[in-house]
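Entry type: protein chain
Record version: 2
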Amino acid sequence: MKNKLFIGLLLIALTIAFTGVINADNGYTFTLSEGANKTDDSEYWYMKLSAPKISGMADENEQAGLNQYFLDYLDWVAEGYEEDKAYFLENYEGDEMPRFGYEYSYDTVTDSADFFAFKTSLFYAAGSSMTVNEYWTLDKHSGKQAELSDFADEWRLTEIRNMIMDAMKLENENGAGFWVEDEENFITSFSFAEEYHHWYINEAGNLVFTFDKYEIAPGAMGESCFEITGDKAVLVKDGKYSFDLYAGDNFSVEEKNWFINVTVPVVGGLADKAEEEEMNKHFAETAESVKSDFEKDVEFAQKSIAEGNDPHFGYEYNYEIMTDSDDYFAFKTSKFFVAASSSTSNEFWTLDKNTGKLLQWQDVVPESAEKSIHNKILAEMIKVNASGQGMYYTNDNSLQAALTNVPGYHHWYLNEDGQLVIVFDKYEVAVGAMGNPEFVIDLASL
C-alpha cells in the first residue's frame, strides 16, 4: 500500500511540475551534432571515433563542461588506440599481427515533450568484443541535465534495485542467464548507476536502468536494460540476439626451434543450442588436430636435430571478430603454419542477430547468382593482373574449383554493410605472395 501511495504521489507531482507550470512548447530545444572525429584504417586495425556536441542547454558552462567531457573521452580512446598500435608493431609482425578496432559514437534515445536523452557508446573488438554505454538525460523544462535524485530518493532506489533483481530471477525461469546468485556484484553495479551514467528517461517518461555487457550476465546477453513501470521492473528487449565469443582452452609452447599458440574459441547465444554445441565441438576438434600435427612435427624434428639438421617451425590457431552490426555477427578462425614459408587457412562464421542462427551459403546466395559471382571475381582478377598489382590464376576452371569449396570450407562472411566477402586461402587462386585474397560482392547487384 505504501509503495502504491508513493507512486501515486510521485505521478501527481510530476504532472504538476511538467504540465501544470510550464507548457512544453515553451521549453528548451536541444540539438545533438558531431563535435569532433578521429579515424584510422589499416591492414590490421581501425578506429572510428565521433564525439557528440550538445547545444540548447540553459547553462552555457554546464553545456561546455559536458561537451568537453566528450572531447576528452574521444582523445582518451584515441590515445589507447595509438598505444595498442605501437605495442603490436613492436612485438608482432606479418600474419601474427593481432587485429582490433575501436569505435566511439552517439545516438538519440528519447525526444519527448519533457525529456531529451542520448547515449554514447565505446565499442572495442579484438578476440572478443565489448560495448560500454553512457546515457544523458536533459530536462526540456529547466534546460538542465537531469539527475537521478530528481526521480528517486534513496528509499525508492532500494525498491527499484529489488524490482530489478526480481525481474532477473523471473527472466532466468524463462531461460535467461542473469547472475542472480552473485547479489553482491549486482548491488555494487546498481550503486554505480549514476556515476557510470547507466540510466535515462524513456519516451514514456519512465526510468530505465542499464547494465553493460558482462556486468550482470554472460556476454551473450549483451547490454541489459530494465524499465521501471509502476511497482515492477521490466527487461527491455530489442527482439535481437546477442552473441558472445570468448577464449576457451589454450595451449602454448615456445622453444628455440618451434612454437605453438592455440586458443580455442567458444561461441554462445545461438537460438539452437545443438547448433551452438556443434560449432564449439568443431573448434575444439580443429584445435586438437593442430596440436596433434605440432606434436608429430616435434617428434620428427628431434630426430632431424640428432642427425645434424636444424628445423624451425610454428603453429597457431586463433579467432577474430569481423562484423558486429545491427543484423550480423561474423568471426573467423585461423590456422597458421610457418616453416620455410607460411600458410594461413581461415574459416568464417556469420550469425544472424534476427534469428539467432548460423547463416548458410544458400541462405545468402541464390543458386542463380553463383555464375554472376564467378564472373565478377574473374573480371576483378584479370583487371588487377593487368595493372601489374596481381598474380592471380585466371584460368577459369581453377577459379570455379575454388568457388566450389567456398560454402563447405566456410570461406565467406557478411561484412558491416551486409556485403558478401569471399576469402580464399593462400595459394588457392593466386601465388603465395598474394596472401589470402578476398573479394567483396554487393548482393544487391547480383
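Comment: The chain has four domains: 1-146, 147-237, 240-356, 360-446.
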